[in-house]
Amino acid sequence: MGEVVEESGINPPAMGTDLVAPVVSAPPMQMQYSTPSWSRKPLLSIEHPNAASNDNNNTLQNSRTPNFISPLGSPIRRALQLTKLDSQDAWLPITESRNGNAYYAAFHTLCSGIGIQALVLPVAFTNLGWTWGIISLTVAFIWQLYTLRLLVKLHESTETGMRYSRYLQIFIATFGEKMGKIFALFPIMYLSGGTCVALIIVGGSTSKLFFQIVCGGHGCSAKPLASVEWYLVFTCAAVVLSQLPNLNSIAGVSLVGAITAIGYCTIMWFVSVTEGRLDGVSYDRVKPESNIVWIFGILNAFGIIAFAFRGHNLTLEIQATMPSSETKPSHIPMWRGVQVAYVIVAVCLFPLAIGGYWAYGRKIPENGGMLTAIYAYHGRDTSPAVLGLTSLLVIVNAVSSFQIYGMPMFDHMESKYTSRKNMPCPWWLRAVFRVMFGYGCFFVAVAIPFLGSFAGLIGGIAVPVTFAYPCFMWIKIKKPKKYSIMWWINWGLGVSGMLLGVLLTAAGIYVVIDTGIQVSFFKPN
């Protein structure tokens, strides 16, 4: 393996043509598509291209030629002869450490893939019924797993030797910066920042409920906190935990988040099923007042199912934490971890949706879904320990999920600094960025508590990130043969995903207009 030499005042080696500017590059076997785990210095740097000795020139020239390059080398190896290295990756929290593995991938994918939004899946069945509800949930699961597979394969380019470590990065590289800002920037930022705001609302509200359960209801002598104060308590915990430096460092946090998500999903459907069906439960659909109401009810059900699957905006970021080389590409351990994670996701979501609908039928609360149903229908005949444990698991999961969903925002803020200053972000500034982001989300959660009313509208805009964009990027980058099976599959799914996003956005607008919004700034419930 050739030795990489730090270039400092070295002329570029003569290669038959005059180079206008020095190019910072390294063979892929040396950099292994990775950056240092602990050092925040770039692997290669250039200070000045002039005044170098012949010995240094010879050493540099040797370092630019990988040992495996030979006349007998494969076309892929020759294509990977020189790989450009972005030195800033060694400074940013997503790519600062590349020591990830399949276990870390499974932890992160589980923590980001199972969320509170899955608890309202039984509500979708009230509009779709048993048959179409199960079919829709199955199709959505397979569809999003397929697009996730596409993203994992697109992470590395065998033609250029480049790694796309962020969703927005690969979208811009594929369709251009203008298209990226128009179609991808807002949905991706919303899926990170907006999710963190929602987690503060859910975590704060559940903390208040947990206090009431533990304190014994009306017999508690302690003065309960207001909703805003519980939001603040939750935010403080999330901000303290957010000081962990990079995505790899929160693998343990994601493991805790994954375990707690599995825990509360299992408890909820198990309690609902063991307690039996409610008296007078019905699975018959109520006849809608008009066809418009019926159509938008169906779209709302599709939206609930689509929103239950999340985390695609973090897939490339998770894979970016893994080392990669020509012989051991990162997509192999990443896909292994994803497969394990989504087997567990299926084991959680399908019993939750089917068991919840069986137990409550049309009586399932639309706001809160299973979480509300447990306390509303079984609050008196279920052990307070079980109810308290369920609430605690929801709180811990929300704090853990805040970290992984906030990481792309931390990365984005720090990249602004590193790109302007051309140096790593100091530790104190990194801490300030994360504190600002955490309490900024807290301010939004308190100032606009009715933000959830726009969830359907904004969520419809974000649906293509999961169901459509990966298909179009695959066609653009991989260029499958026209009219081949892969060409038809990706075009069909991509167009369907865009159409679904448009319909869900229209349904969100209709719901906002039809039901209205109770505007109450700075008055959370």
TrEMBL record:
Residues in Amino acid transporter transmembrane domain copies: 99-513
Which Gene Ontology CC terms are recorded?
membrane
Q: Which domain of life is it from?
A: Eukaryota
Compartments, as annotated in UniProt: Membrane
Q: Which GO terms describe its biological process?
A: amino acid transport
Alphabetized UniProt keyword annotations: Amino-acid transport, Membrane, Transmembrane, Transmembrane helix, Transport
**TM regions (residue ranges):** 102-124, 130-152, 182-204, 224-242, 249-271, 291-309, 340-360, 385-406, 427-448, 454-475, 487-513
Chief localization: membrane
- What is this protein's name? Amino acid transporter transmembrane domain-containing protein
What is the taxonomic lineage of the source species?
Answer: Eukaryota, Viridiplantae, Streptophyta, Embryophyta, Tracheophyta
